Structures are given as C-alpha cells and as structure tokens.
C-alpha cells in the first residue's frame, strides 16, 4: 500500500487532497480543490468508503473550507476511485457534478441496467474471452458489484470552459482510459489536471471489455498526441502518484510502450487463431499470468483485447467467434489465404 501524502497548498487557490482507496495497490486518489468565490470546485471526488470520506473532509478543512461549502465537482472520468464520493458531496453541499457526455451516457446506462445485470454481462464477456468454467465460477462468486456513480448535472463537451471565479478550467477530451476521460486545462496552460490520462510512473488501464466498443487503444494513442505541444515546464497534476513536468515526453514514452506491446501481440498471432485468454497467457505481465486471480486475468485479457482491436483496425488481425462463442484472433494475412 502506498503511503498517503500530505494535504498540500499548491498556490493560487489550488490544493491537493489525497483520498485513500482502501484495499487497492494504487493507494490513493489525488483530489484537487480549487477555491472560487462560491466555494471550492473539486477535480474528482474519491472512492466511496468511510475512510475516504473522512480523508476528504479533513483535507478540505486543512485547506480552509468544508465539504458543505463545495460548489461543484468536475470528474475526469467515471471510475469509482474518481467518482465514488461525488454523490455524497452533492447531498452534503448541493454541489453540481459535471463529466464528459460520453462517460455520462455510460453512467446513465449503468443506472438503467443495475449492478446485477452488469455483473452478468461481465461473466458472459469473460466467457467469450476464453476463461475456463472454473474461472467463471470463481468470478461469479468473487467479482465485486459496483453501484453506478451519481448521475451528473452537466454533460461537458471537448473544449468547454468551466468558470471558477477569475480562472477558467477547459475540458480537454482525452478518450482511451474511458470513452469520456477528460484532462482539465487551468488558465490556458498554467496547469493541466490529467486524471489517469498520463501518470508519471505507471500506464493507465486501456481495455476493451465489450467486443462492440470501438478502438479504445487507438483513441488513447490519438489522445496522447494532444499533449505533444504541452510546454515542458507546464505543471502536470495527475490523479495518482505525484506531480511532474514534461507531459509531452511522458506521453511519447507511453505511446512507445503500447507500440512495443502491439508488435509483441502481432508476433503471437497465427492462422489458427487464439482466444484472448490464450494470448494473454503468453504476454509478460508485472505479476505474471500464473500468479493472477481471475479478476486480474479478466483485466489483463481486456488490455489484450484493446491491443488486438487496434491491430484489427490497422489491418493486421481479424476476429471471429468459434462454435462455442469464444472470440478467436488470428493474423489478417492468414485469414486472406484461408478465403
């Protein structure tokens, strides 16, 4: 577990408030409080847990304000370590909640189908990835059911300004980690809140969980290009780890990492085809495939799926379901010969 850093005054009315993620190796989410004449506006809100709530409340008090004073919450994306407490903040203060419209649509969809149906869909998709019956049984027993986050009051568009007193936040749409992930540009480049888009030492989870959901890795690589002109000295305020500079260099490094993984995956494809489970078992992972529990294997397979989809869009791979409904990926050249 990572050590929780201190609450920090970053100057010019911006505070960093670390909020723990109990039981998660990420350790914490960095929530940013921006003081405005109408009360603080938060960038993200943190995990929905009592320990997290207490950390947020005490952190805001150190910053000279209270949860009940919060004027608004801008979510970089819908994931629970960012959005989980947004609803409770709104109940306490009457604050508005804003997120990009693409994530807002997902959240409304989650609310319509409910946690149980979302769980059942997760099992069906994992079966289609090639998990064994025993693994599916374990996933059915152990996978957490996440309630959808609070519905937003405002749907943001790319480039939309968010007034915060004499300063302005501008939404910068950076899809990939989620369809509606945004960075937030403060005062035309003074600072950039990057959420999970670029982090100083780790790469965000880029995954394809549903076979019909576009090309998240391709979108992510394009989103990284949006940081290419960021001045080297621009202060980058991410949601995890620590602040840094050199966003363009870091974005280029992350893109190179994914290109190397794409090449590695392409080298595993053949004419017979393989499931996402089989392909993922051959790829290197920090913990190692054999050491992973089924929930971690599901996430790894979803990352493999995102890379396979990008290879498909580049004309290097094809995918079709076998007789049991398992998706099998093979090299595009071999598929042409088979036809």
From TrEMBL:
Coiled coil spans: none
Record InterPro entries: Metallo-B-lactamas, NDM-1-like, RibonucZ/Hydroxyglut_hydro, WH-like_DNA-bd_sf
A family per Pfam: Lactamase_B
Domain Metallo-beta-lactamase: 28-240
UniProt KW keywords: Hydrolase
Membrane spanning stretches: none
GO MF, one annotated term: hydrolase activity
Protein name stated in the entry: Glyoxylase-like metal-dependent hydrolase (Beta-lactamase superfamily II)
Protein source organism: Streptomonospora salina
